[in-house]
């Protein structure tokens, strides 16, 4: 597949994210493999090694042309790509990143603040509905790359909105609250990108709090920009699908509280090394992994 064809197909993938991103994967024989073909993650994983720069630009350009409510799908897709590729990110003996690592750190994480700035643009009040999902995504990605101070910074992002307005009390002050913009010298610096994301999230949370406080003081909030009803309906449908999908994993049980340390130590001590069965099981696991869509 040449670069032009890859861009065309990937643009179609981005265009259909509102349909494919939150669809549950069915691995049963009756699915016929159609879901795997429509899986946006599978398409990227199959072709990113040759076209990751084109794909990166496609995501940014496509998101810039979307309504701010629809851009959230691109950011969620972006974060899932990082999650799927993270296990492939490795360093050699000289400390140099492999190709996947360069894609993650130099592009997906390096330009993360550009994507967050599109999802939470300045002077767009309705885009503040994206804030909670953006916070969850940034916290998750930061726990992978460990740039921000997790306890203190995450606490600030999660604290109640009204605590962010200590210096703003009057309606005039709330109306004149400035919008922060992300600025960095190196567009591929993932540490600066993560710091910019954190600063943007705090600023947008402050604006969300100011809007709530202004409504409390005045009883009304004037939003100047027009709202596309179709974009709102799409967003409502996406939120329903995402909420429904989040319920699929509620049956999992945390086992930390029932783990018997003595039982673990006894089993660990009884292990006498690798056996023929262990090697056979490893070969079977390797075969299953290579037959999965991640390695096709």
Automatic annotation (TrEMBL):
<dbReference type="GO" id="GO:0045943">
    <property type="term" value="P:positive regulation of transcription by RNA polymerase I"/>
</dbReference>
<dbReference type="GO" id="GO:0005730">
    <property type="term" value="C:nucleolus"/>
</dbReference>
<dbReference type="GO" id="GO:0045903">
    <property type="term" value="P:positive regulation of translational fidelity"/>
</dbReference>
<dbReference type="GO" id="GO:0070692">
    <property type="term" value="C:CTDK-1 complex"/>
</dbReference>
<dbReference type="GO" id="GO:0032786">
    <property type="term" value="P:positive regulation of DNA-templated transcription, elongation"/>
</dbReference>
<protein>
    <submittedName>
        <fullName>LALA0S17e00518g1_1</fullName>
    </submittedName>
</protein>
<dbReference type="InterPro" id="IPR042326">
    <property type="entry name" value="Ctk3"/>
</dbReference>
<dbReference type="GO" id="GO:0031124">
    <property type="term" value="P:mRNA 3'-end processing"/>
</dbReference>
<dbReference type="GO" id="GO:0016538">
    <property type="term" value="F:cyclin-dependent protein serine/threonine kinase regulator activity"/>
</dbReference>
<dbReference type="InterPro" id="IPR024637">
    <property type="entry name" value="Ctk3_C"/>
</dbReference>
<dbReference type="Pfam" id="PF12350">
    <property type="entry name" value="CTK3_C"/>
</dbReference>
<feature type="domain" description="CTD kinase subunit gamma Ctk3 C-terminal">
    <location>
        <begin position="230"/>
        <end position="284"/>
    </location>
</feature>
